[in-house]
Queue: 3 jobs
Job 1
Amino acid sequence: MTVMTDIEYPPGSAPMTVHDLDGMPQDGRRHELIDGVLVVTPAPGYRHQKIGYRLYHVLESACPPEFDVLGAPFAVHIGDKLELQPDVLVGWSEDFTEKDLPAPPVLAVEVLSPSTTIHDLNTKKATYERLGVPSYWVIDPDGPELTVFELDGDGRYQQVAKAAGAQAFEAQRPFPVRVVPAALVGRS
């Protein structure tokens, strides 16, 4: 998929900036900015949030001190026209500010929802790839299934693993951790 970086805006209009997001209503929706284009998605539902929190706990339990794990909403803010809010992210501890992560995370995770699936699997994946995020995980609650993408030597995402149900994914990047999709969906 190709991501346009030179978007033509109608006369009299301009791309939005991250500063414009500060004026957005606090309506529970997720407001993200990709190349100056506002993307608004509904607030995540119960199941989506439970999966995100459970994955956060798994990652946080294994996280070495040089990294931090955070869940949404927390902004990855790069430049003036890009702000993303992954469902779960891992970044170098030294890169975080009180307000945001102004550097690419080392891991971005999105939990699919009916209203965000196409966006997560295409636009956000391409944006994370372009930013050089080494690992991108996508969790499909309906499987449940975890699909893992990692950057190759050319800076392109390659699917390196897929785990479904009770299968375990033994991650090495960004640090060793064991993730079982079924445990993220149900009580463990």
Job 2
Amino acid sequence: MSTSLLRRGVPGATVVAHVRRRAVGAYDIDEWGLDPELVSLANPIFGLRWDIDVHGADQLPALGGAVLVFNRRFGISEPWVVARGIRQATGRFVRTVGVPDVAPIGPFVRRFGGVLDRTDEIAGLLRAGQLVGLPMSRDLRTRERVGQLEVERLEAAIETGCPVVPIALVGRELGRSWRIVVGDPVVPPVDGGPLAAAELAESTHQAAQVLLDESLPTSWWF
């Protein structure tokens, strides 16, 4: 699936052709369940729902794995916004952690890039050169503070040597406009050690908080 197709959406006639092929099972999914063609078919719908402005996309690797850590509040729009925004800006898919291992929800969300919240799955994706979206914990009280990181999930970044990239998300759950601000990658320690993941989590948390502080608008109606 070409990057240009992902960015433009799929023309009407092409949609019909894709639907016909899918009706007879002529489509591919990868080993983690991603269905690139389905994402392309849904792209115009996502475009109607969210208008996303991405800053700092050049901080993301053009090739190879990375963990993208982002803040959230209610957690409904944020994973989809990150996946769509990064895909628009770079042409790369984001495999977001947190899919429930329950049918039919789990398999359906996997088609759009969702993956299980397991360290071994994250490590496998990073070794395969994928971008892995890792949401921070929810903070329902205020949008001015980023949540916490589950330290165990960053062990995969240390194990594979992949960078951890902090991302600040600014938007409202029922709003259309969102802003994604990508920060400088945090390189995991080479030597590891029992406190390496905790130190990496703290460094990433601080970097994400600074990004959010700098990115929040002065108006609460954004």
Job 3
Amino acid sequence: MSASRTETVVSRLHGDSADTQRLAKVRERTGLSRSTIYRLISRGAFPGAVQLTTRAIGWRKVDIDAWLKARPKAAR
């Protein structure tokens, strides 16, 4: 599926495509590995993914923002 087609499907299903982030971006923003993200999801400690297409998932940016904001800050 082409990038523009994917963006159209994402927009239609879940709002603006800029509001959805794929796994690579979520990993970059959180600093978590793929396995840690999925382990936290199974425990209910991380936002669940949304289905973008039949073979693609992503996370809502607002959900990741809220999760990051709720995380305790490390002591300096």
